[in-house]
Automatic annotation (TrEMBL):
GO terms for cellular component: plasma membrane. Keywords: ATP-binding, Cell membrane, Membrane, Nucleotide-binding, Transport. It holds the Pfam family BCA_ABC_TP_C. The keyword Membrane applies. Residues 6-247 form the ABC transporter domain. InterPro entries: AAA+_ATPase (IPR003593), ABC_AA/LPS_Transport (IPR051120), ABC_transporter-like_ATP-bd (IPR003439), BCA_ABC_TP_C (IPR032823), P-loop_NTPase (IPR027417). GO terms for molecular function: ATP binding; ATP hydrolysis activity. This is ABC transporter ATP-binding protein.
Amino acid sequence: MSHTILQVQELVKRFGGLVATDHCNLEIRTGEIHALIGPNGAGKTTLLAQLCGELAPDSGRILFEGRDITRLPIHKRVSAGIVRSFQITTLLPRLTVRENLALAVQARTGHSFDFLGTVADESDLDEGAEDAARRVGLIDVMEQIVGTLSHGKQRALELGMALACKPRLLLLDEPMAGTDPEESKRMGELIHSLREDHTLILVEHDMDAVFRLADRVSVLVAGAVIASGTPEQIRNDPQVISAYLGDDESAETEAVQ
Ligand SMILES: Nc1ncnc2c1ncn2[C@@H]1O[C@H](COP(=O)(O)OP(=O)(O)OP(=O)(O)O)[C@@H](O)[C@H]1O
C-alpha cells in the first residue's frame, strides 16, 4: 500500500491582487512520478517554489512525511529530503563536472564553500560527486569543463547536482525544456530510472513525456488542482478536457504552447 509523502492543504499565494495559488490541495504518494500540468500562468512554478521553500505561502499548509514544513527555510527542506532541480546553485560553466558536483555535495553536507581549490582532494565529496555522475551518465566526462558540454549533458548535470543532495522528493521544473528529441528521450529514460528510489514531482510542458512517464497527473488551473488521477483518467476527464487539454489534437497542442 502506498503512503503519502507530501500533502498540500488549502495553500494560498497572492502577488498583490493576483491569486497565483488558490486554495490548492495536492497529495503525492511515496515512490510515484507525479506530473503537474496546466496552462501557462496556472501557477505550477509558484507552487513548486512554495514546496521547496523559495516562496512563503500566505496561508495553508505543506506536510512532508506528516511533518508541517510550511515555514521551513530552503536549506532545512534540503536536509529533510526535498530538492528542486536548479535550486541549490546554477551550473558553474568554467569548472569541471567533478567540481560542480562536489559543490552540490558540499551544499548538502554543510562543508564550507571557501576551499574551492581543494575540492578535488576531498574524498567524501569526490565519492558523492562520482555517485551522482554515474547516476546521470556523466562519469566519463568528469574532468570536462561544463561550458563545453552539450545542452543535454548540462541538463543531466543539473539533475546530477540535485541528486548529489540525496533527495527523497525531487521537484523537476521543465527538465525537457530546450532539449532536442534525442536529448529529451535520454532525459525521459533518466527520470524513469530515478523512480526506483525517489519520489518525483514533474512540471513539464511536453505532454508526450508527461503521459509516458507519470504514474499520476494533477491538473492545475488558475492556482487550484481541478483533477488528479492516472494519465488515463486525466486524458478522459471531461473537466480537464474542457479546461485544458481540449478535445482534439490541435487544442491540446495550443494549450501547452
Ligand atoms: N514574482 C511574481 N510577481 C508577480 N506575479 C507573479 C510572480 N510570479 C508569478 N506571478 C504570476 O502568477 C501566476 C502564476 O505564474 P506561474 O509562473 O506560477 O505559472 P506557471 O503555471 O508556472 O506558468 P508557465 O507554464 O507559463 O511557466 C501568473 O499570472 C504569473 O504572472
